[in-house]
Structures are given as C-alpha cells and as structure tokens.
Amino acid sequence: MSSTQAEGVIRNIIREIAQTCLSRGQTLSETLIAFTVKAVVLDPRNRFNVDRTLTKQDVQKLIELCVDRLMDQTSPTLNTIKMQVYFDMNYTSRREFLEVQQKVLRSRLPSLSREITDSRAKTREDLKNLYGKIVSYVIQRCNLGSATDINTMRETTAALQSVFPQAQLATFMSLLKQDKEQQLSELALIVSGIRLFNKDSRKGGEGIQNLPAVLNETLPAAAADIESELAGCERLAWQYTALLEKICERTECPVHPDLLKQALYNTRQHEAFLRLILADIIQSAKEVTRLQSDLKTRMMLLKDTVHTKTTVPTSHVFPHFTALASFWAGLEGEMLLLSMLTNVASGLRAFLSAQSLLSPDQLELLLHGLQVQTDADRCSVTAEERVVESEMSSCEWCFPESSAHVEDVPLQYKGFCGFTLVKNNGLLLPGNPKIGVLKHKEKHYAFSSRSAAYEFASKADEFIAAAVETAKRQPELIQLLQLHQEFASVTPYSENWHQPLTKMQSGEKLLVKSISKSDASMQTETHPLETNIVKSYEWNEWELRRKAIKLVRSVHTHDLSLDMALLTQVNLSWCQELPVQRRTDADTQNDI
C-alpha cells in the first residue's frame, strides 16, 4: 500500500466515523475523531496489533469502538479530551497571539496600500481621491475609529493635512514603492499620535475608546472571576482525591471508582488550564500598568515640549507622536488578548464532568469523616521527609536548598507522583520537591513521600513503562501529564493528528514513530575573532551607488519646524508642517 493509499484509508475511516456520529445527532471535529482513533489503537484492551497493517475486520472493529466512545456523552474521559482539543485549538500564547494580531491587522491593508502606491493620479479629482484613500489607510492602520464615521474622517483628515498637505502628493508619487509604503506607515503613527494628544487635551479624539479606563475595570474583574473558578476547581479536586484514597474502605458508593478517577482527571485538567489563563491575565495586567505609565509620561513630555513655544522642530515632536501610537497599539493588543482568554475560560465550562457526576449532597455524605487535604497540606505533612542520598547512592538527587534553579526545572507527570500513579491505578497525588527530585536520564521526578521516591528510584525504568501503560488505558493522561515524548506518534492536538498515521506503508507499523531531531553545535566557533569582521563592508557596486545617492539627498534636507501659532487656528490640526520641496532623482544625479 502506497503512502497516498494509506492516507486515503485513514481519511475514509475518520470520515465514516464522523458520518455515523452525525447520523446519531453528534457533530464532531476531525481532530477529536483522529485522536480517538489513535487512543483506541493504543489501548491494549482492544488488542490491536500495531506491528501489522489493518485488515477489513480491524477497520470495522476500529470504527465501532471509536463510535461507541464518541457517543458516550456521560464519559468524563470524552469530556476531558474534548476540553483538551478545544483549549489547544483556541488558546494561543501571549507572544504568539500578539504577533498574529499584528499580521491580521496588516493583512487588511495590502489592497488599499497597493492602490495608493500604484496610483498614477494626475487630475485634481484623482488626487483628491488618492488623499482620501491615504486618510482611510491611516484610520485602519492604527484602528482609531471607523473609516465610515464622518467625524472620524474629518478629524483624521485635519491631522493628516497638518503633517502631509495635499500639495505634497506629487512629491509622494515620485517616490519608489518601498519608500511610499514606509512613509504611509510613518504618517499613520504620527497622525494617530496627534489624535491621541488631541483626545488627552480634550480637543478631539472622536471615536477613540478610552482603553486605559476599560482595561482598569475589566482586568481585575476577569482575574477575580478566574481565581474564584480556580478555587472551586481545586476544592473539587481535593475532595475527589480524598474520596479515591479511601474508596476501598467504603462498602457503598453510587459511582464506580473508575468514573471518580476520570472525573478527577477532568478537574485537574481544568485546573491546569485555568492556572495558565490566570498567569496570562496577571502578566497582561503588569504590561498594561507599564504601558499606561509610559503613555502618561510621554504625554507629559509632549505637553512640556509644545507648551508656550511658537515653533518646535518636527524632530522633537514626531518621535513623541510615534511613541504615543505605539503605546496605544500595545493597549489594544492587551484588550484583544484579554477577550481571547476570557472566551477560552468560558468555553471550558462546557466540558466539565466532575460537577455533574456527584451532587454536593452526595459528595458531602461520601466525605463524612474524611479529612480533605489540600495540595499545600500534603506538602507540609511531608516537609520533614527527605531522601537520604547515601541510601540511594546510585541515583542522582536534587534538592531546592542545594541545587540552583531546581524549582524551575520542569517535572515529569506535571509534578504528580509517578509511583502513586502506577501503584494506585492512576491516582494523581502532587509531588513534593522538598523530599528530593530524582534526575533519571535527564528527566526530573517528584514524589508524594520518601518511600515512594525510594521505590520508584530502585526500578525507575519499570515504573516509567508502567506509567505509559496507564496512559494507554486513560488517553486523557497523555495531554494532562505531558507524555507526548513517550507517545512519539501522538502529537499535540494543534498539530495534524492524522499525519503520523498516514505514513503507513505495507508491512510497516500502524503507528509510525516520528524521528526526533535536535540542533547541535561543535566546539570550534565559526568566527572566533568576531571583532575583526567588518560588518559594514559592501561588495555590491549598485548598493554603494544607492548609498551615495542617499547621502547626497540627506545633505540637502532642510530642518523643519512647527508653527505653534496654528494651534489657535485648527484644534484638530495643530501640527502644521512647513511645505518642503523634495529633491528628485534627476536633481541628485546632476549633483553627482
């Protein structure tokens, strides 16, 4: 079977499962179905032989098992996997989100920018239309108001005329395309800074939202909501953990222990996602505080610069305008980020199972007489326990007080005790790094007690293999405990789930193990004498000519100044620039 045929088989399996579930009233994503296919194949209880290709009977059995799992709407496991898929498909890290937003903002302008830079306007009417397009570009570039709002258009036009009069369009059109694009970006920032200054001076700012006030109100409220939800999630996880620890002593329980365990996984996964969202909100609050401080400081500097002065060089005020626009863009990015985070947190609630598995009255009854310990309580109880290195001299141990940055080292199983995970049939207990962190094959493990640390360390490879087998039976643990390296064919949800599976060739394994790659460096440096490299060296003759022409232009550039008397004439157009006759390429060539 060729690679293309294998890919077609897998796609047909996914498609048939999707159609079967749809006929039963459930619309499911291909990502969820593809993961379920792999989870069913990995589960040893289903007895799929991954060392051979699928037969027709295997395909039919696989489809039936997948449909049964996907249609079990009461399964905490299915809800946890759905939660994981939803989060990975909708959550974006702070840095990546802000980068994507910048790309989205720029992607809306290429056609308009192209119309401006490619324009060959000659008549007065054409020049007027071109100037109107530049005004629209400035509004959309910095997202200050709507380009269809008359007041916003009027105010932006007045601000633009103060720094770029319509009379300069002819000079603008004579520039190279790259120079036109650069000037458009600079004009957008300068004009946006003028409008923000006018808004702060109560002389304009039509259509500009008061972002600092909005963020100062919404950020604390969002953080409080997430903290409250996280507290309830933690409390539920502690209760389910206490219940599972003592369930063997109970003769009656309305819920099967396996369902309780799956509900615990569901709660722990929700807790992990909420912690990540809360950390982003806290970081966003810090960034907003910094941006508001910088914005206020820059605004005061600008006011001091123009106050009681008749003329001010443009080189003194234009950087302030550009900085104001940049700070404001940063606040807009934080606003969009907060919206994404709150939407994701809200969407997670649709996949919670622990709250509905047992009613509060049932849970209180089952917990009667039991001591519910928090994660902090468990760590405090074992705080005095400590691994004696001499008793396990063959192993390498790290301790917070003696090893630098040990608390920042990522722990395997997300910090849960690997020994308890295996011995207690999948129970999750938080590990305590103060007991001692085991370093085994460049990975670090924490444990819930000293005895657990000793037993795990004595047979580390066996316990690690057993933990993988536990995850095969409970596939939500792959994401919850970050076991993707142990399951090389199971990639994160955000990647193409069916990709590794479609590489199946005739006679090869059903699940193909991906090839691990890493960057490596050699001892010898490429340039051991970095200071001797002349980075300004240029061999291209045409590049040297271009620099020479640029230098000649710069010599003939005149200093510009602002006439502050214009402030009293037009409130919104207070930064009038003196017209400057730009030199053409022909003039430059004559000079040369």
Please state the average pLDDT score. Answer: 82
The total tally of domains equals 4
- Secondary-structure element pattern, one letter each: HHHHHHHHHHHHEHHHHEHEEHHHHEH
Strand arrangement across the biggest beta sheet:
2-3-4
Number of DSSP-assigned strands: 5
Given helix and strand content, the structural type is mainly alpha
- Give the terminus-to-terminus CA distance: 70 Å
Give the low-confidence spans: 494-516, 557-592
Overall shape: it is elongated
Taking all Cα atoms into account, the compactness measure Rg is 32 Å
Helix content range: 55-70%
Q: Give the helix tally.
A: 22
The fraction of residues in strands falls at: under 5%
- Main beta-sheet annotation: 3 strands, antiparallel
CATH topology of the largest domain: Ferritin
CATH architecture annotation of the largest domain: Up-down Bundle
User: In CATH's first tier, which class of the largest domain applies?
Assistant: Mainly Alpha
Provide structural commentary.
The chain has helices spanning 3-23, 30-42, 56-71, 76-90, 94-107, 110-117, 124-142, 150-163, 169-173, 177-200, 211-245, 257-306, 314-348, 354-357, 360-366, 375-381, 418-423, 450-458, 460-473, 476-480, 541-555, 585-591, and strands spanning 311-313, 396-398, 437-440, 443-445, 561-563. With 592 residues, the chain is mainly alpha-helical. The strands form two sheets. The chain has a three-stranded antiparallel β-sheet, with no helix packed on it. The protein has a two-stranded antiparallel sheet with strand order 1-5. Helix 7 (124-142) crosses helix 10 (177-200). Mean pLDDT is 82; it is low at 494-516 and 557-592.
